[in-house]
Write a structure and sequence with these properties.
Strand content of chain A: 15-25%
Oligomer: homodimer
Largest interface: A-B, 45 and 45 residues
CATH architecture of one domain in chain A: 3-Layer(aba) Sandwich
Structural class of chain A: alpha/beta
Distance between the termini of chain A: 60 Å
Radius of gyration of chain A: 21 Å
Helix content of chain A: 40-55%
Largest sheet of chain A: 7 strands, mixed
Strand order of the largest sheet of chain A: 1-6-7-17-12-13-16
CATH class of one domain in chain A: Alpha Beta
Chain lengths: 448, 448
């Protein structure tokens, strides 16, 4: 019998997060204060004290509190699959594995951190979390996380998505969260924008400003972020730690790992636990996949920039297309970010990972092939990594190599079927790299 | 550590279906020919020869072909969960377990039979399956099943649902199926109705007529049905066989099993493997849950009736509200059927199961409580069983009994969030039992 699913028992779920900061050959560049350009930390009134500690910790393993472990076990350990049917369809000697996070109640990996952030907020006596969401993936995950921990949740959802994706909003409301279209009348930032432009479609930048203002003006509220930050990436390492156990039990080790990058948390979750092996000389090709329309790692310079349009964050050393850059409207909304997690940028800087950019039409073509063979409709974001995995498997067919390829499949696309319809009806278009817009955005980045 | 998920390895997946017809104390009443009222079988040009054999078999176990086992292992065995968090919220001594079929690529149990029907059709040299679908659950499952087996798939989808639920249609198309709104111009039945009423919203009865006509007029095509028939129910017994192993390993046995009934296949899948125990004297309360608006088992008489509006099926001995009865538009579309699987009717006739009817507002209230504690949004159909499980758990709280309750959670509600929105915004209404309409429909049932 050929094994298809590599499952782990609940006892085998990791009980600690892996903190790659313990193993980096050079430490991360510091965050800089936007005014003074002096090294700084995350603003304390916005984040739980434990999260701020985690953000700068260099301890190798940080224990997951027992109550959180119990909640994570509702969907963890998640399955690792062998893609027998896709391999057959491609007629490749490669062995393709995928780690699937779509089994979580939120349908993606995002719940791995949202529930943790809610937990540590409650530990500080906080009653409520505020956040922004674009397409709604992160907002739903935080709504569910807050529901499990017993916190209120307020989500500022970019108005155009709020109107286009009612199911995401309803999902948040089903879990008891309040979701408003941003710009909203609930904050000064929102009211200012609406008074200038009552029909503003909103943007992630505006929604961040609203959520941060909300959290700053209420003693009972923290702000919550779904990617980019070190502690968020660390919370996702349960994924990669599980993969390591699962592959070991299957008697294989990856020659190639591919994952998509937007903020970087899905990619980090899978690959960070493999970094110590790579540092010890293990040959393993780690590929970060991004859209051609927003090619942060393949085309962006490595410099200090803001994490958000409104310049509310500290300055972060990263590959960036400029914080004012608005990427073309590719369907993978979660990959439309001008920057990238500092940890992933650092690994790229150190030559430990490589990057590849893909066009969305080819990405959806690969995703449909994946669905028809493996039965899972990938979300548009990880579909980018599916494309690269298929490319690499076809290279193996040419060379005759039986490489072991691991795909980070961060979530399903059941809330993104409109994108599939656009592809199936030939309405999907590719966007060339918007060089001039990026150059303009980069010219607005402050010199440090 | 409290165990939350009871998983099985792939080796532990059942390799045979359980056929309850081997153990029935009295055999099923025969199907009758609609004209002669003589005992008859399923019409051979419509169904695979192996399925017709299975329909009337009295062998206790029928082996699952190896290729099918491999496909089923893509999502099977499915998890059995202990609802620790729901128990805590209810403050009940009851132990609540649920078997979750939402992890299948189709999001429900339906794929357990669709892939089997496609397999046996291909064995007969058939290239294509035709079916009808209401809300789209069965149509998606058949589309995916055909995609796995390499068959074409044509789905006639009730026009009003086709327009209201575009995501279901796109899902079918993503898996390569053709989905048309019914009435369509592709069949004589459809053209006839459209010439009389170009704006016809369609109905399941019309869609069945179209799918059957399609299959009858093409040599390369069979017709496929998602519930009711004996072989369909048998294909679902992998679910209950797994539950038995999982509960045995957990050291528990159910005092109560609750599942929803529309056609009856989800309910059958879970409960049939427990019937031999019950026949041997094991005390186990088996509750079939239906909507108050369509109370087949609680209010319908036990008589011969047609399975469809167009009188295309043989006459079936069953509890029925009359084949011309059109149930009120409750959100659980899968439970809006005038009749019920002959096997389930027979078990009710023999006193082996009991029935309960529920109103949808209370059903959604229970479903939201389930979602917020257990993290899974139930489809509106199994939400009916969630209501009964919560009721029984609360009875245990009163009596102090620590009963073991098993819930058949047949699928998730991520394509049904509009129903949740109706509930959350107070727009959901209950429908009283439409006694007069049922009496009128029953008067049209032919006397046998």
């Amino acid at each position: 019998m050929e094994t298809t699913k590599f499952t782990l028992s609940e006892e085998e779920m990791p009980t600690s997060w892996y903190n790659v900061q313990a193993d980096l050959p050079q430490p991360l560049p510091p965050l800089l204060h936007p005014g003074t350009h002096e090294p700084t930390i995350l603003p304390p009134p916005l984040f739980a004290s434990e999260l701020i500690k985690q953000e700068f910790s260099t301890e190798r393993f940080i224990e997951i509190p027992e109550e959180l472990q119990q909640i994570l076990r509702m969907w963890r350990p998640t399955p690792l699959y062998r893609a027998h049917r896709l391999e057959k369809a491609l007629d490749t000697p490669a062995r393709i594995f995928y780690k699937y996070e779509g089994v979580s109640p939120a349908g993606s990996h995002k719940l791995n951190t949202s529930v943790v952030q809610a937990y540590y907020a409650r530990q500080d006596g906080i009653k409520r979390l505020a956040t922004e969401t674009g397409a709604g993936q992160w907002g739903s995950a935080l709504a569910i996380g807050c529901s499990f921990i017993g916190l209120e949740c307020k989500v500022y959802m970019v108005r155009v998505s709020y109107n286009q994706k009612p199911y995401r909003r309803i999902l948040m409301e089903t879990f008891g969260a309040t979701c408003v279209p941003s710009p909203s009348t609930d904050t000064q930032a929102g009211r200012d924008i609406l008074s200038e432009n009552p029909d503003s479609p909103g943007s992630l930048g505006i929604a961040i400003s609203e959520a941060v203002e909300d959290a700053m003006h209420r003693d009972d509220t923290y702000y919550s972020l779904g990617s980019v930050l070190n502690h968020v990436l660390m919370h996702q390492t349960v994924v990669g730690l599980e993969v390591k156990t699962q592959m070991e039990k299957a008697g294989v080790y990856p020659d190639i790992i591919a994952g998509c990058i937007g903020g970087g948390s899905n990619f980090a979750g899978v690959i960070l636990p493999f970094i110590p092996d790579k540092l010890k000389g293990k040959r393993i090709q780690i590929i970060a996949v991004e859209p051609e329309a927003c090619p942060t790692l393949t085309k962006g310079p490595d410099m200090y920039d803001f994490g958000d349009v409104a310049r509310l964050t500290p300055l972060i050393k990263m590959f960036t297309l400029g914080h004012t850059f608005v990427p073309p409207p590719v369907h993978a909304g979660g990959l439309r970010y001008h920057g990238l997690a500092p940890i992933i940028c650092h690994l790229n800087r150190l030559g430990l990972i490589e990057a590849r950019a893909e066009h969305q039409v080819a990405v959806f073509q690969s995703a449909v092939q994946f669905a028809r063979t493996e039965g899972i409709v990938p979300a548009p974001e990880p579909a980018h990594a599916v494309k690269v995995v298929i490319d690499e498997a076809l290279k193996c067919k040419e060379s005759g190599e039986a490489k072991t390829i691991l795909l980070a499949l961060s979530g399903h696309g059941y809330f993104d079927l409109a994108s599939y319809e656009a592809y199936l009806t030939g309405k999907l278009i590719d966007y060339e790299y918007p060089r001039e817009k990026v150059e303009e955005a980069l010219s607005k980045v402050p010199k440090v």
